[in-house]
Structure formats: C-alpha cells, structure tokens
Amino acid sequence: MGPAMSTVPHARCAPPDAVVWPRDVEQLQEMVALCHQHRVPMVPFGTGTGLEGGVNAVEGGVCFDLNRMAAISELSVEDFSVAVEPGVTRKALNAHLRGTGLWFPVGASGTNAVRYGTMRPNVLNLRVVLPDGSLLHTAGPGRSARYGVME
C-alpha cells in the first residue's frame, strides 16, 4: 500500500473575473465604489502568504491586489510610529527601519507572535475603504500615536 490518502477536503479553485492593482487609496475607493454600485463581488488580496483560501472568488468578481500599495511614510522614531499601506510586508518595513534603532518583530501568528505579541496592540489607526468606497479612520483622521515624550 502507498501513503495514506489525506481526508482534508480541498476547495475547488475559483479565480476572479478580473484582477486590479490600485496604486493609492483614492484609486482603490473609486474601484470599490464601482463594484458596489454594480453589485460585483470584491475579494481583497494582500501578500499571498495565507493558506486558508481567502482569495478564492467563489462568486467571481474583482480581486483587489494591494501589493502595489506599499508606501511607508510618517516615520517618527521619537513616537515609535510609522504609517504603512496594506502592501507593506514586515520584512520591507524592517528594511526601511534599519539604521533607526527600531525593529518591528510582530507577525500575525507563529513564533514571533508568541514571543513579541500580536498586531492588535500595535495598530493605532486604520484607514479603511468600506464596501461603498467611503473612507473610515478607526481612531480619527490625523490621529497621532499613543506614545510620545512625557513632559
């Protein structure tokens, strides 16, 4: 007899009808609003490291590949804060931080999360494009970091 057959069911591959690569938040908002207006399913795609099949477009639609939204800005060494777009990986962020004395060890799961904690306490404010294309700031527009120099 050969190796045992896996009893884990596998999802059938369901590619989207189209893939788009927005370059900034405004472009993303416009495309999301169009999909919402025409009732087209939307599937976000980040770095592609997940194994759970989250980008399987079972209803078709448009996949939003966010890899090109990879800007890193508003670095404040004093406040231990930085603004990143959704396409920024932990490795890219750490390459950007090299030489500043800062390091971002946190991952979504795995050994780094066990050792250094998870993302939740490290995310201070999100700009979220809602399904209708509107923009939401979870902590308020222009909100500054919770860390700072104490007087």
UniProtKB/TrEMBL annotation:
<dbReference type="GO" id="GO:0008720">
    <property type="term" value="F:D-lactate dehydrogenase (NAD+) activity"/>
</dbReference>
<dbReference type="InterPro" id="IPR006094">
    <property type="entry name" value="Oxid_FAD_bind_N"/>
</dbReference>
<dbReference type="InterPro" id="IPR036318">
    <property type="entry name" value="FAD-bd_PCMH-like_sf"/>
</dbReference>
<dbReference type="GO" id="GO:1903457">
    <property type="term" value="P:lactate catabolic process"/>
</dbReference>
<dbReference type="GO" id="GO:0005739">
    <property type="term" value="C:mitochondrion"/>
</dbReference>
<comment type="similarity">
    <text>Belongs to the FAD-binding oxidoreductase/transferase type 4 family.</text>
</comment>
<feature type="domain" description="FAD-binding PCMH-type">
    <location>
        <begin position="12"/>
        <end position="151"/>
    </location>
</feature>
<protein>
    <recommendedName>
        <fullName>FAD-binding PCMH-type domain-containing protein</fullName>
    </recommendedName>
</protein>
<dbReference type="GO" id="GO:0004458">
    <property type="term" value="F:D-lactate dehydrogenase (cytochrome) activity"/>
</dbReference>
<dbReference type="GO" id="GO:0071949">
    <property type="term" value="F:FAD binding"/>
</dbReference>
<dbReference type="InterPro" id="IPR016169">
    <property type="entry name" value="FAD-bd_PCMH_sub2"/>
</dbReference>
<dbReference type="Pfam" id="PF01565">
    <property type="entry name" value="FAD_binding_4"/>
</dbReference>
<dbReference type="InterPro" id="IPR016166">
    <property type="entry name" value="FAD-bd_PCMH"/>
</dbReference>
